[in-house]
User: Fold these one by one.
Assistant:
Number 1:
Amino acid sequence: MQEVYYIDMNDSLTNQLSNCLCCPRECGIDRLAGKVGFCRIPAAIRISHVGLHFGEEPALSGTKGSGTIFFTGCNLRCVFCQNFQISQEFKKGNPRTLSVEELASEMLSLQGQGAHNINFVSPSHMIFQMADAIQAAKEKGLVIPVVYNTNGYDSLDALRQIRGLVDIYLPDIKYLDNGLGKKFSAVDDYAEVIPGVLREMLDQVGHLEMDENGVATRGLLVRHLVLPGELENSRRCLSFLAELSTDTLLSIMSQYSPQYKACDHPGINRRLTVEEYDEIIDYALDLGLENAFIQELESQEHYLPDFTKDKPFR
């Protein structure tokens, strides 16, 4: 039986899915016809989890939680991915397939539950479907900020087309070393792509702004996961952020642990040490990156999700 793809096509950005250029891979395949590229997801909106998340940065989770919507699939293949159950192996049964209107309803439901924001996780390969849903939700009363929570491997053209729809950009800066990108995430040009992505995001929304309760309302918050044994890569990433602007709000994450296929890769087949993390924190401060969230190393276990459960976060 042929699968039905629930895409609203009237004057929609999703028309571009017939020759998919959603991300820098530019696969060019016809996802509307059910074909799949690197992300392995056709045009249908595939969702693996929707719910309030209290483990994001304090500016996002606040006291009421961040309204997370996890898309299935990913345009990277990170061997250490903590979300591999839904990004790589699709282990949470059959992901839900939604129409644009149904996705908009999920957004409004999260708003009704008190979420501080709508947090789209791994949206790079679903950017146009997401854009249509945001527009539909805003027409029906969505007023809380929209967060674009991404691995950073995004298309500049696609980002420019959604300008004005996203309030908070939450990108990773994983690598400024293409060798590491290829080795650990199956991407050849991450180091060329991420600087332009961060500049575009900063141009669109500016530096992070928060309300009187310390909850983000608009702006850019950049994440960097420190990898064990790869401190020079972290130094390069932080040096670029300092050049971009020392006012950039940064989340320096210590939560690395060897998940998924990381144990097959010598060097990252162990946890991050306190000494490694402290060295990178000191380096950030030396660069003038004083607006930063830091973590205790106990977060290596605390933040690991299990998407086989209805409530995947501890």
Note: The beta strands are 45-53, 66-71, 96-98, 118-121, 146-150, 168-171, 209-210, 216-225, 249-253, 292-294.
Number 2:
Amino acid sequence: LLADAGDEATAQAVASRMLAELGRPMWVAGRELFPSASMGIALWQPRYRQGEELLRDADAAMYRAKALGRDRSELFDEQMRAEATRLLDLEADLRRAILADAFEPWFQPIIHLASGEVVGHEALLRWMHDVQGPLAPGAFIGVGEDSGLIEQVDWLVYRRAFQWMTRHREGYVSINVSPRHFHSDNFADRLLLMLEDAGAEPSRLRIEITEVALLDDAPRALRMLKTLRSRGIFVLLDDFGTGFSALSYLHRFPIHALKIDQSFVSGLEDAEHPESLALVRAILALAGTLGIDTIGEGVETEAQAAILRQLGCTMGQGFLFGRPMPAPATDSRGAA
């Protein structure tokens, strides 16, 4: 919705009427539907030199309305403009970083809880920013996913992780794969070719996916997992318990291990709120029945490790055992 400057009340009133009209129930093919809409409002200002600029800001306000719950209108303001500018600058910076190959994996050890042995490492994405230093994905993952650039970033990091695998010959390496990436047509072929080019053994690779990747397109996901498994690549289900956690896919899909989300692990010592302990116990019992390994994420204290060990958790990962470190600082004992 575009409107003249200084007429905010009228614009918002018009938007409310339009939303009410658009929200009227309708009958389609014998079924009653209840549509809804999200609307962004931008008021004309002298600073606008082209109609596309006004439309761009109205579009940004519409996405804000969606983010705040949909079926509502939002007025574009200066705060929104500043955020839009920041995101545009970040995207441009991200594109330059891809050209400069400014991304690398940092490795965090994964420990066998019973023996204390390092059994593998997770390769965690870091952007080696020339001004801000190493940036974790939380600083840029949203822009990367919205722009589609994250797939290019992932492949840069995978290549370096596989090269490290050939030098560091103990245990496995796990990589994180987004649902969008996982479902791309050439993912498996490209992954296997990159492993071959690096001289890395597929049997030492684990891919970490979330439950969303399985539920988005279950038949396609099953074919992909079977292809990877036939080449010796195992699959870890990340952040287990935070999503839909549909039990049916645990026996339908070739899942090697469940990673128990750190939000549950962090609550294991809270005697006043035993919900985390009950959930972790249930997950471990289920995994044990199905013959699936388990990895407790975000282990920070000896007490948490002891509880996980007592409950039968197979492996642990977290600051207690080692922080993520760049490849040269990671030796066979884990993080330095």
Note: The mean pLDDT is 87.
Number 3:
Amino acid sequence: MNWPRSLSVALVALLLSGTAVRAEHEGKLQILLLGDSTTIGSVCRVVEPNGMNLEDVIRALLAAEKDLPPTNVINQGRDGEYIHGLLTGGRYDKEIAKLPGIDYVLIRYGLNDINRREEFATNFPKDWHDLLARLRMDFPQAKLIPMTI
């Protein structure tokens, strides 16, 4: 099973597990994807420009579950991104913090962090903590789902 499908199946299972679904923004469940190239799927987008991307796969799998509300899946993955860069480079404040009505945040980092973050063993866990704290502050009702490589 490839990672987008396994992630999507896990999300469906989570949503069906009894967690309250609010769908407060335009009547749609808001799912935010944060991460690096493995989230945005840049290679897939080049190889198959008209193919289904991670956000499309998640949306389709959730739509197949008739008892769930419609979803809006926002893919904010970026090539080369790492947690510390997201938080200190201004992108988080400009593009993430102000998103409306986020219900779920799926977060996948690690590949770039290991190569770009100084003192990785010490700083990577701190970076995760800082990102999760910031997401909790900006989206207090959202369910956060962190993943690493």
Note: The chain has a mean pLDDT of 86.
